[in-house]
Design goal:
Layout: E1 7-9, E2 12-16, E3 21-24, E4 28-30, E5 38-45, E6 50-52, E7 57-65, E8 71-76, E9 82-84, E10 88-91, E11 100-107, E12 112-114, E13 118-123, H1 125-130
Parallel strand pairs: 6-13
Antiparallel strand pairs: 1-4, 2-3, 5-7, 7-10, 8-9, 8-11, 11-12, 11-13
Length: 131
Amino acid sequence: LKLQHNGRYRCRVQRSSRQSLWDESEPVTVIVHGVPLSGVSLSVQPPGGQVALGNPLVLSCAVAMGTGPLSFSWQQEGLGHTIGTGPCLEVLHIGDNDSGRCQCRVSDGDSMAESPILNVTVLAERDRWAE
């Protein structure tokens, strides 16, 4: 069911095919309720959000409960614009400017929920040797 399936429904049965006699049930009202968005979570590869300069970074956003269709947007603090629009965000070659706080926002058209904030740290070559 989808939210637009609200309405009044009845069952109609043909009693006799020869005489075109029909029986109808009493109408019933169907109200479809959406499930509010909740449990938005983030996973990241490499774990912890620490990635070496030039390497890939993959962020995934998941929703525990909610009625679709869902739309996703990725935000990075300080940029002021969306950096991605799907449940996964893949950065093939992480750059110096990719460090920062990231978050996934999910909308079902009626409400919006946010993931926890993830701090992405880009490690320069010298940082990797210090580990």
